[in-house]
Specification:
The complex is a heteropentamer, with 1 copy of chain A (266 residues), 1 copy of chain B (271 residues), 2 copies of chain C (359 residues) and 1 copy of chain D (386 residues).
Chain B lengths: L7 H22 L10 H7 L2 H30 L3 H12 L6 H12 L4 H8 L11 H24 L4 H9 L4 H12 L1 H17 L2 H6 L7 H10 L5 H23 L13
Chain C lengths: L4 E12 L2 E12 L3 E5 L6 H9 L6 E6 L2 E2 L10 E4 L11 H12 L4 H14 L15 H13 L5 E5 L7 H18 L2 E6 L2 H7 L2 E6 L2 E6 L1 H6 L4 H7 L3 E9 L2 E4 L2 E4 L9 E7 L5 E3 L6 E10 L4 E7 L2 E7 L8 E5 L6 E4 L6 H7 L1
Parallel strand pairs in C: 3-8, 3-9, 6-7, 7-8
Antiparallel strand pairs in C: 1-2, 1-4, 4-5, 9-10, 11-12, 11-14, 12-13, 14-20, 15-19, 16-17, 16-19, 17-18
Chain D lengths: L10 H4 L8 E7 L5 E3 L2 E3 H9 L2 E7 L2 H10 L6 E2 L3 H9 L33 E14 L22 E4 L2 H11 L9 H14 L3 E5 L2 H7 L5 E5 H10 L3 E4 L7 E7 L7 H11 L2 H11 L6 H6 L2 H4 L8 H6 L8 H15 L4 H36 L1
Parallel strand pairs in D: 1-4, 1-5, 7-8
Antiparallel strand pairs in D: 2-3, 6-9, 6-10, 6-11
Helix pairs in contact in D: 5-6, 6-14, 7-8
Classes of the chains: A mainly alpha (266), B mainly alpha (271), C alpha+beta (359), D alpha/beta (386).
Bound molecules: adenosine-5'-triphosphate (2 copies) and magnesium ion (2 copies).
The site of one adenosine-5'-triphosphate (ATP) has 12 residues of chain E, from α1.
Chain lengths: 266, 271, 359, 386, 359
C-alpha cells in the first residue's frame, strides 16, 4: 500500500517535470508555426532545422562553450578542491564562503558584473568571454562536488601508493584521482548542465561573432520562437535519453558478467 | 604531502572574476551617470519596495512548495536500491538539459484557458480554470524550474543517513512521525539549507518566468534589474544598486535559515 | 528458574531472499539473566536479536514477553532497548541530548527529572563532564558507553547488546566487559548479549547460547559449555581444542590415534565413529617412554602464561599448553586422564540439508 | 531547393573584397532575415557566396538590448537594425557612422517617402529596412461591432480578453494616442494621465505580452490586441476569424533601419552588405519572410499582387499621414516612463498589501525561533556546567 | 647478531605542534628479524614506523638502512613496504589490481611475469578465486590478507605492519597471527610489527620493544620481557599482574602487604621503596592458615582455561588464576615462591619530564 503510494507520488512528480517537455516535443511535429494550435502532423521543422545555419551555429557554439568551460572548470576546480582541502580550517572556511558567493549571487548580477569587468579590461566579447564567464559560474559546483569526496577519502591511500613506489604525481593520478572521480564526474555534469542552459550570464558577455542557443531563442521573442528549436530540443532529448538508457543497460550487463566470471573462478 | 598550491589558480580566478566584478557593481551603485558619488540610487530603490516584497513573497512560497514536494521524494529515492537511485536522479536532471525558456513556453501551452489542461478538464465538463497570468502561475513556473535544485541536495544528504539511526530511534520509542521529526529532519537539515538557497536565490531574482507566466503584471525585482540594464531607461547605476539590495536581502535570508544549525558545512550538498 | 521466564521464542523461522536464516529457534530467557548468543559470523545472532527487538517479524513462530505474544508489536512499544552493533548514535545531538532522547520521546517527565536521570546514567557509565561533546568527537569506548547509557536511561526490562565491544581494542574491551557486567548486576535487568568472542561469552554470561547456521547447538552455563560441549564444533569454538577421529568400542573405551584408552563416556553405539576432544591444557608431558603417546616437539611459542607446543605423533599434530619450555625436536610423552577425554557424536556432515534440497 | 539564381546589376562592385578574408558582424532581431527554404534565398549565404565576405550573424530581442550591448563596448558590430527612436538616440550619442551613399547605390530604390523622416532626416545614418504600423487585431466572431478607436482596449466587455504590449514605449504610445496626445509626449502631466489610463486598463488585461500574442490570438485565447501589422497578417493566415483595424486616433508607424555603428572596422564591407540587402530580389525575399512592409520600391514590384494590394501591410496614405513615428526621448523622460511603467505593472494591489505582513511575520518568527533555540542552548550549557 | 643490523635509528626525535612525540629513540633492527613495537595508544609506535617508512622526517637524528643514511629519501625509493593500520586498500581496484599495483608502477615486468607473481601472492595469503572481487566486498580478514599480499609482492627487504590485526575478531586474529609468522619465516625478510596487544607481541616476535610516551622502556625477547620486566609498567602491560608497594629491606628480603618475604632480587638501596610484581598464575592457593597470606574470595569468574579470583586481604585486592573453583566468601591461603616475586625500581612519577620543561 505504502509502496503503491510512494510509486504514484514519484510518478506524479515526474509527470510534472516531463509534461512540458512532451508538449514541446509534440508541437515540434505540428504543421503550423503556432505553439498552442495543432493543425496536423509534419516533419517540416526537422527539415528546416537542418538548413537553419543560425540555429545550428548557435547550437554548436553552445556545445563548444559548455564542453570547454566545463572541462576547464572541472580541472581548475578539482585542483582547487585539493588545495583547499589541504589548508587549515580557518582559511578553508573563508575560501569556501567566497566559493559560495556565485551560488547565492543572482545570475543577472553576475552577468552584469562580468560584463563591466571585461569592458574594463578591454577584452572584446566573444568566445573567450563566454568561456571565461561560464568557467566562473561553473567552478563552485565542481568544487562543491569534489570536496566531500576528498574528505571521505582515506588519506592513507595516498601514502600507500607512495609506499608501493609511486612518486607523488603518480600517486595522485593512480589513487587520488580515481577515488574522487565520482565527485569530479558529478561536478562536470552539473557544470555542463548549467552551461548548456545559461542565458542570463551569457547574454551580457556574448559578442558579435558567437551566440548561444538560449540567447538565440530569447532573441526570437519579438517575432516568435520557431518550432525548429522545438525540433532541435526533441532531438537533444531523445539522444540524451538514449545515451542514458544505453549506459544503464551496459552497467547492468557488466555487473552480471563480472558476477558470472567470479562464479567461474570459484 | 600537503599541496596547497593547486588552489592558487582558483584563488586568482576568484579574485579576478568574482570579487573585482562585485566591487565594480558596488562602485556603480554609489555613483550617478556622470560617475560622481551619490546615494541617489539607493534612495530610488526604496521606491520599489513593494516589488521587492512581492519577489520575496513569491520566492518564499515557491521555496516552501519545492521543499514540501521534494522532501518525501528525496527520502523515497534515498531508500531505493543504488541502481534505482541513479536512474531516478538522472531522470530528475534530464529536464534541465532542455532550454529553460522552451520549457516555460510549454507551460503556457498547458495552462492557457484553451490549453491542454483545461481541454482535459473540459472533457469532464469542468473548468475552464483560470491558471495563466496569475501569481500562482509564476509560483508554478518557479517550482517547476527549480524543483531539481531542491531534490538533489536533499537526496544527497538523505542517502548518507544510516538506516540503523532510524532503528535506534524506533528502539528508543519513536513512532514513524517521531522518527521523522527527531532524526530524519534534523539530520537532513544541511540539505534543506542548501536546497532552500538553491531555490530561493534564482526564484527571487528571476525575470523570465514572471514575464511569461505572470502575464507581465507580476513584476519582480529581477524584472526591475533587467529593465535598468536592458530597458528603456538604461540606468546601470540604479540597476547596480538594486542588485546590491537583492544581494543583501539574499544574504539576510540565508543568515536566517542557516541559523538552524550554526555554520553547516555546505560542501557536497549538491549531488 | 523456569517460572521466571521473561522472553520466549517459540519455533522461530526467518528467511531472507529464499534462504533460511533461522531454523525454528526455541529459546527461553529468564528475568534478570545475562544471556549471551555466541556463534560465528553470519550464524543469525543479529537476526535473533532483531526479532526480539521488533525490527523483523519472524516468518514463523511466536515471541512472548512476560507471557504476552509480541508478534507485530512495533519496536517503540516494547520495553526493550538496544545497543547497536555500530552504536548508531545520533550525530546531530551531543552526548547529553543523545542520552536524553528516549526520555523526551516517551514520557512527559519534567526537565529537572530528565536531567537527574541523565546525570545518573552519565555517572553510571563514567562519562561525567562529557555532556556537551559531539558524539563524533568521542573515542570508540566512549561512544560505546553513550550508547549503553542512551539505552539504559529508559529503564528497559531487557537490554539487547549486539557485539557492543566488537570495534574496541583488546585492553578497552577487557575493561568494558567488567563494566558491563557491573552495570547489569547493579540495575538488575535482563541482558541479551551477542558476541563471537568465546572468552567474552564465558566471562560475562549466566548462560551461553551457541548458534550455528541458524540453529541453536547448545544452551548452558559457561562451565557446562566449556566442559561438556555437545559436539566438536562447540568444543572448538569455545576454546582451543584437539579434535581427533575416534571409535567408541564400548562404554568407557575409546580408540584414537592408534591407542585404546579408558574414558568416562558411555551410551554410544558399538563401534560408533566419534570425535574425541582434548583441551591443550589437559595434556600432561612426561618423559618420552612414560606417556600414553610419544611425540616430537614441532614448534613452541611463548604465550606469556604458558608455552604452546605443537607436537607430532605419526601424522597427527597435537596442541599442548605447558608452563615448561621444550626444545624443538625433543621427544616427549603425552598423557591425558580419562576425565579429560571428551567423546562426542559426529556432527552431520556440513551442507547435508542443502544437498537434500537440491536433490 | 535549387541553387538560387540571382543576378546583381553590378557584379564587379561585389567582387572588391574577394580573397581578402574579410568578415562582418551583423546584429539583427531574431527571425528577421530570410534564411532559405520555401523557394526563398538564404541571404547571408548568398552574400558570402557573392562577395567572399564572411557574415557573423547574431540576434537581439529589443532595441534596448541592442543599445545596452553597444553601450557596454564589448563588441564591434558592423551592421545593426535599430528602430526609429533608437536610431535618433544613437545618433545623438554618436554611436553611428554616417553612411557613404556612394557605396550603396541600391539606396535609390528606397521609397522617397522614407527620406525625410523625423529620426534621421535625409537618411544620413540609416537605410530603412522594414516598416509597419501598430494595428488592432481582433476576433471578428466575438467582436461584431466595427472597431474605430484605441478605446476598445479599455472596454469592460472584453475583460480578460485583452492583450497589451509588455514593452513600455509601445504601451505608453497607445495610451497617449488614446488620449489624443503625441506618442512622443514628454509632458509629465500627459504621461501621468497615460499612466492612470494604463492602470485603469489593467483589470481588463489578460496579460502583457510580446510574441505570445501569436499563439494566443491564433488559439482564440484572447479576443483583441495591438500588434505589428505584418505579424497580424501572419496570425490571420492561421486563424481566419481574425481581423485588423486602424484606430482613428492614428497609430505608430515604425521603421527598422540598417545602420553602421561608429566603431565598425569594416564600414565599406558593411555598406556592401546594406547594398546587398537592397537588391530588389533580396529585399523582396526578406520582406516575404519577415512579413512586414518594405520601403524598397523595386522589391515591392516583385511582390505578389495580393500583398501589394493588402491594405494592412501597405495602408492608404490617409492612414499613414495620421500615424506618427517614435522619436528619441530625453533621458529624463525615459527614466520617468520606466518608473511609471513599473507603477502600472506593480499595481496589482491586493497581493502586495496582504503579502507584506506575512513575509515580515514569517521572517520574524524564524528569527525569534532561532534566537530562542540559541538561548536555550546557552542556558543548557550553563546548567550542565554547574 | 649485531653485525647483521639492517635498520638503525639514532637518537630520533619528533615534535608535532610543539609536543615531543618521540624523545631520542635509539634502535637497531636486524636483518630477517621479527620485531614488535608494543605500547599503549598514542605512545609513538605509528610515528616510529612512519619514520622508517619515510612518511615523516625526524626533527633530529638519523635513520640508516644497510649502513646508508636514509633521511630525506622519499618513501617510493626505499626497499620497504607497509601494511597500513586500516589496510588502505584502493577501493577503485579489485583484489588482483590492488596486489598488482606496485609491480605496475616500479618495474617494466612483462604482463605474464606480473601475473605469475600476483598468483603466487594470492596463493601465499590463501585468496585464490577472489581476484575479481571488489575489496569493499571482502571481510576484514580477507582485506588484511590483500594488504599483506600487496606489500609483499614487491619483495621488500622490510615489511612494516601497523596493528594489522587490530580490527579483526579474536578467532580471526589468532589465525592471522600464525599465518603472518608463517609468511615471515617462508619469505625470510624483516618484519617490523606494531601492536598494543601484548599476547600478540609475545606470540610472534623475535624481539619486543616496549614503548611509552615517546620513549623505549625495554628491548628484549618475549621471555625476557615477560619474566624480567624492567619496571611495573612493563610488567603490567605485558600481562595481568598484581603490583604492590613494597620496601626492600636488604638484598633478598622484601616487605609487602604487611609481610617480610624472601626473594631473589638484590642490589637495591636499603629501605628502597619498590614495586612488587606477582603474576596471578604464580599464586598458590592453600587452606587459609597454611598460606603466607590469608584472604577472602571476593569474586570469581570463569575464563575457560582457568578461574579468575579476586581475593581481599585487608584493603588489598589480589588477582589469582587457578584451575579450581572457590565459592565467594571462602577463606583461602595464598603463597608465592621467591622466584615469582619480581622486585622493580619505582618509575619516576608520571609527567616528571614535562614539569621540568615547564619550570
Ligand atoms: N536484510 C537482509 N537481507 C538479506 N540477507 C540478510 C539480511 N540480514 C541478514 N542477512 C543474512 O542473514 C545471515 C545471518 O545474518 P546475521 O546478521 O543474523 O548474522 P550474525 O550472526 O549477526 O553475524 P555477524 O557476527 O557477522 O554480525 C547472514 O548470512 C546474512 O547475510
Ligand atoms: N600529524 C600529527 N599531528 C599532530 N599530532 C600527531 C600527528 N600524528 C600523531 N600525532 C600525535 O602523536 C602521538 C603519537 O601518535 P602515534 O600515531 O605514533 O601513536 P600510536 O602509538 O601509533 O598510537 P595508536 O596505538 O593509537 O595507533 C599521539 O599523541 C598523536 O596524537
Ligand atoms: Mg551481527
Ligand atoms: Mg598507531
Amino acid at each position: 500500500m505504502s509502496k503503491w503510494l510512494s510509486r504514484s507520488y514519484i510518478g506524479l512528480v515526474l509527470t510534472f517535470l516531463y509534461a512540458p517537455i512532451f508538449v514541446l516535443i509534440l508541437y515540434s511535429f505540428n504543421q503550423s508555426k503556432s505553439r498552442g494550435h495543432w493543425t496536423g502532423f509534419s516533419l517540416r521543422w526537422y527539415e528546416k532545422l537542418f538548413h537553419n545555419d543560425a540555429i545550428l551555429n548557435a547550437f554548436m557554439t553552445t556545445l563548444l562553450v559548455a564542453v570547454i568551460a566545463s572541462v576547464i572548470a572541472t580541472v581548475l576546480g578539482t585542483a582547487a578542491a585539493i588545495g583547499i582541502h589541504n589548508m587549515r580550517k580557518r582559511s578553508r572556511t573563508a575560501i569556501m564562503n567566497i566559493t559560495y558567493l556565485p551560488v547565492i549571487n543572482p545570475e543577472i548580477v553576475m552577468g552584469v558584473s562580468l560584463m563591466l569587468l571585461f569592458v574594463l579590461m578591454g577584452i572584446k566579447f566573444g568566445l573567450i568571454t563566454l568561456i571565461l564567464a561560464h568557467i566562473t559560474f561553473n567552478l563552485p559546483y565542481v568544487i562543491l562536488s569534489v570536496m566531500p569526496k576528498l574528505r571521505q577519502m582515506d588519506h592513507y591511500l595516498f601514502e600507500a601508493a607512495m609506499d608501493l613506489g609511486c612518486t607523488p604525481l603518480q600517486a595522485f593520478m593512480k589513487v587520488t584521482l580515481p577515488e574522487i572521480m565520482p565527485g569530479i564526474v558529478t561536478g562536470f555534469l552539473m557544470a555542463f548542465t548549467f552551461s548548456l542552459d545559461d542565458f542570463n550570464i551569457s547574454y551580457f558577455v556574448s559578442g558579435d561573432k558567437f551566440q548561444t542557443l538560449p540567447i538565440l531563442i530569447y532573441s526570437m521573442t519579438r517575432k516568435r520562437v520557431s518550432p525548429e528549436i522545438n525540433a532541435l530540443s526533441a532531438i537533444i532529448f531523445i539522444v540524451v535519453l538514449l545515451v542514458l538508457i544505453l549506459v544503464n543497460i551496459n552497467d547492468v550487463r557488466r555487473e552480471k558478467e563480472l558476477r558470472k566470471k567470479e562464479d567461474a573462478l570459484r | 604531502m600537503k599541496v596547497k598550491a593547486t588552489a592558487s589558480p582558483y584563488l586568482l580566478w576568484m579574485a579576478l572574476f568574482i570579487i573585482i566584478p562585485l566591487g565594480l557593481v558596488a562602485y556603480f551603485s554609489v555613483t550617478d551617470r556622470l560617475g560622481n558619488f551619490s546615494l541617489e540610487n539607493y534612495r530610488a530603490s526604496l521606491a520599489y519596495s513593494p516589488v521587492i516584497f512581492n519577489s520575496i513573497w513569491l520566492a518564499i512560497i515557491a521555496t516552501v512548495i519545492c521543499l514540501i514536494l521534494a522532501y518525501p521524494l528525496a527520502y523515497n529515492f534515498s531508500r531505493k536500491s543504488a541502481n534505482h537511485q541513479r536512474t531516478l536522479i538522472l531522470l530528475i536532471m534530464l529536464p534541465m538539459w532542455m532550454n529553460f525558456l522552451l520549457r516555460t513556453y510549454a507551460w503556457m501551452t498547458l495552462l492557457e484557458n484553451n490549453g491542454l489542461i483545461n481541454r482535459f478538464f473540459g472533457l469532464f465538463g469542468l473548468g475552464p480554470f483560470e491558471m495563466i497570468n496569475t501569481s500562482g502561475a509564476v509560483v508554478l513556473g518557479m517550482v517547476y524550474n527549480y524543483l531539481p535544485f531542491m531534490i538533489l541536495p536533499l537526496y544527497s544528504v538523505m542517502t548518507k543517513i544510516d538506516h540503523s539511526l532510524i532503528e535506534a530511534a524506533q528502539d528508543l520509542g519513536c513512532n514513524s512521525i517521531q522518527v521523522l521529526k527527531n532524526v530524519i529532519i534534523p539530520l537532513s537539515m544541511p540539505g534543506v539549507t542548501t536546497g532552500v538557497t538553491m531555490v530561493f536565490v534564482p526564484a527571487v531574482s528571476t525575470f523570465v518566468i514572471s514575464r511569461m507566466l505572470g502575464g507581465g503584471s507580476n513584476m519582480l525585482i529581477g524584472d526591475l534589474i533587467e529593465m535598468q540594464f536592458l530597458g528603456n531607461a538604461y540606468n546601470p547605476n540604479l540597476g547596480s544598486a538594486l542588485s546590491m539590495v537583492l544581494m543583501v536581502i539574499i544574504l539576510i535570508c540565508m543568515a536566517l535559515t542557516n541559523m538552524f544549525e550554526g555554520v553547516e558545512e555546505k560542501e557536497g550538498m549538491l549531488l | 528458574m523456569h517460572k521466571n521466564t521473561l522472553i520466549s521464542l517459540k519455533n522461530i523461522s526467518v528467511e531472507f531472499d529464499g534462504e533460511k536464516i533461522l531454523n525454528g529457534i526455541n529459546l527461553d530467557i529468564n528475568d534478570k539473566e545475562f544471556v549471551t548468543l555466541l556463534g560465528p559470523s553470519g550464524c543469525g545472532k543479529t537476526t535473533t536479536l532483531r526479532i526480539i527487538g521488533g525490527f523483523i517479524d519472524p516468518d514463523q513462530g511466536d515471541v512472548f514477553f512476560d507471557g504476552v505474544r509480541l508478534n507485530g508489536v512495533p519496536p517503540y512499544k516494547r520495553h526493550i532497548n538496544t545497543v547497536f552493533q555500530r552504536y548508531a548514535l545520533f550525530p546531530h545531538l551531543n552526548v547529553y541530548e543523545n542520552i536524553e532522547f528516549g526520555l523526551k520521546i516517551n514520557k512527559k517527565l519534567p526537565e529537572s527529572e530528565r536531567k537527574a536521570l541523565v546525570k545518573e546514567m552519565l555517572a553510571l557509565v563514567n562519562l561525567k563532564g562529557f555532556e556537551l561533546r559531539k558524539v563524533t568527537q568521542l573515542s570508540g569506548g566512549q561512544q560505546q558507553r553513550v550508547a549503553i547509557a542512551r539505552a539504559l536511561v529508559n529503564h528497559p526490562r531487557v537490554l539487547l547488546l549486539d557485539e557492543p565491544l566488537g570495534a574496541l581494542d583488546l585492553k578497552l574491551r577487557k575493561e568494558m566487559q567488567i563494566e558491563l557486567k557491573r552495570i547489569q548486576q547493579r540495575l538488575n535487568i535482563t541482558f541479551i548479549y551477542v558476541t563471537h568472542d568465546q572468552e567474552e561469552a564465558l566471562t560475562m554470561s549466566d548462560r551461553v547460547i551457541v548458534m550455528k547456521d541458524g540453529n541453536i547447538l547448545q544452551i548452558g552455563s559457561p562451565t557446562d559449555i566449556y566442559n561438556e560441549p555437545v559436539n566438536a564444533f562447540v568444543a572448538d569454538f569455545i576454546g582451543e581444542s584437539n579434535i581427533l577421529d575416534g571409535i567408541m568400542h564400548e562404554d568407557y573405551l575409546v580408540e584414537f590415534a592408534g591407542k585404546k584408552l579408558e574414558c568416562v563416556d558411555f551410551g554410544f553405539a558399538k563401534k560408533e565413529a566419534v570425535d574425541v576432544v582434548i583441551r591443550p591444557e589437559d595434556w600432561k608431558i612426561s618423559a618420552s617412554e612414560q606417556g600414553q603417546f610419544s611425540a616430537i616437539v614441532d614448534s613452541i611459542i611463548f604465550k606469556g602464561v604458558h608455552w604452546e607446543i605443537i607436537a607430532k605423533h605419526d601424522d597427527l599434530s597435537f596442541m599442548i599448553h605447558t608452563t615448561q619450555k621444550y626444545e624443538v625436536g625433543t621427544s616427549i610423552g603425552m598423557s591425558v586422564v580419562p576425565e579429560d577425554i571428551h567423546i562426542m557424536h559426529k556432527m552431520p556432515p556440513e551442507g547435508d540439508s542443502k544437498q537434500e534440497e537440491e536433490a | 531547393t535549387p541553387a538560387y539564381a540571382f543576378e546583381p546589376k553590378d557584379q564587379n562592385y561585389y567582387e572588391r573584397f574577394q580573397g581578402k578574408g574579410i568578415s562582418i558582424s551583423v546584429y539583427n532581431w531574431g527571425e528577421y532575415i530570410c534564411n532559405g527554404g520555401d523557394g526563398l534565398m538564404n541571404v547571408n549565404e548568398e552574400f558570402t557566396k557573392l562577395t567572399d565576405i564572411k557574415v557573423n550573424y547574431t540576434n537581439y530581442a529589443t532595441n534596448e538590448e541592442l543599445y545596452a550591448k553597444m553601450k557596454s563596448g564589448g563588441s564591434n558590430y558592423d551592421v545593426i537594425f535599430p528602430s526609429d527612436y533608437m536610431i535618433a538616440r544613437m545618433m545623438k550619442e554618436n554611436m553611428l557612422a554616417p553612411l557613404n551613399h556612394e557605396n550603396i547605390p541600391n539606396a535609390s530604390y528606397i521609397n522617397p517617402l522614407f527620406h525625410d523622416n523625423s529620426y534621421d532626416p535625409g537618411n544620413v545614418y540609416s537605410i530603412p529596412y522594414t516598416w509597419g504600423t501598430v494595428v488592432i487585431i481582433y476576433n471578428k466572431n466575438k467582436i461584431k461591432e466595427p472597431i474605430e478607436s484605441w478605446q476598445v482596449l479599455w472596454d469592460e466587455r472584453y475583460k480578460n480578453e485583452i492583450l497589451m504590449f509588455s514593452n513600455s514605449r509601445d504601451a505608453f504610445g497607445i495610451a497617449l494616442k488614446a488620449l489624443g496626445y503625441s506618442l512622443n509626449s514628454e509632458d509629465p502631466k500627459e504621461l501621468r494621465e497615460a499612466t492612470d489610463l494604463l492602470k485603469e486598463q489593467k483589470p481588463f488585461v489578460q496579460s502583457y505580452v510580446m510574441d505570445q500574442i501569436f499563439d494566443k490570438m491564433e488559439a482564440n485565447e484572447a479576443m483583441i490586441a495591438p500588434y505589428y501589422a505584418g505579424d497580424a497578417i501572419s496570425m490571420m493566415e492561421s486563424n481566419e476569424d481574425l481581423a485588423v483595424a486602424f484606430p482613428k486616433e492614428g497609430t505608430n508607424l515604425f521603421v527598422d533601419a540598417v545602420c553602421i555603428p561608429a566603431n565598425s572596422d569594416n564600414q565599406e564591407a558593411a555598406e556592401m552588405y546594406i547594398n546587398f540587402l537592397n537588391e530588389p530580389k533580396v529585399a523582396a525575399d526578406n520582406i516575404e519572410y519577415i512579413g512586414y512592409s518594405s520601403p524598397n520600391l523595386a522589391a515591392f514590384d516583385l511582390l505578389d499582387e495580393e500583398i501589394q494590394n493588402n491594405e494592412i501591410i501597405y495602408p492608404s496614405m490617409e492612414i499613414l499621414e495620421q500615424s506618427e513615428q517614435f522619436i528619441n526621448l530625453s533621458d529624463e523622460t525615459n527614466l520617468r516612463m520606466d518608473q511609471l511603467w513599473t507603477e502600472v505593472l506593480a499595481s496589482k494591489g491586493s497581493f502586495l498589501s496582504w503579502g507584506f505582513a506575512p513575509v515580515v511575520t514569517i521572517l520574524a518568527l524564524f528569527a525569534t525561533k532561532n534566537w530562542m533555540k540559541y538561548n536555550r542552548r546557552k542556558k543548557r550549557k550553563r546548567m550542565v556546567d554547574e
